[in-house]
Write a structure and sequence with these properties.
Order of helices and strands: EEEEEH
Strand order of the largest sheet: 4-3-2-1-5
Shape: elongated
Helix content: 10-25%
Distance between the termini: 26 Å
Number of helices: 1
Number of domains: 1
Number of strands: 5
Structural class: mainly beta
Strand content: 35-45%
Largest sheet: 5 strands, antiparallel
Length: about 80
C-alpha cells in the first residue's frame, strides 16, 4: 500500500472544481482493499483558504501529494 498517503500528509486538490489547487492536510484515510487489487482510498482533508471549517472527503484521484522543491530536486539527482 505504498501509494496510499498517510494522515498528516500535505496534499493539493488535483482535479478541476471550485477547490482546484487548494492545499490541505489529510485528517483521515479510509481504504477499501480487495485481494490482489490496488486499494481504493478516500481522504478526509482539511483544506486551507475555504469558508468551510469542516474537512471534506475526496477520492484518491482527486488529490496529489505536495512535496517540497528541495526533496524533488534531490530525488532527480
Amino acid at each position: 500500500m505504498s501509494n496510499v498517503f498517510s494522515e498528516g500528509s500535505l496534499v493539493r486538490r488535483a482535479n478541476y472544481s471550485p477547490f482546484h489547487g487548494r492545499k490541505g492536510i489529510i485528517r483521515t484515510v479510509d481504504c477499501i482493499v480487495e485481494d490482489g487489487e490496488e486499494p481504493f482510498c478516500f481522504y478526509l482533508v482539511a483544506l486551507e483558504g475555504t469558508q468551510s471549517k469542516e474537512p471534506m472527503w475526496f477520492e484518491y484521484d482527486e488529490v496529489e501529494l505536495v512535496t517540497s522543491p528541495l526533496i524533488s530536486s534531490q530525488a532527480d539527482t
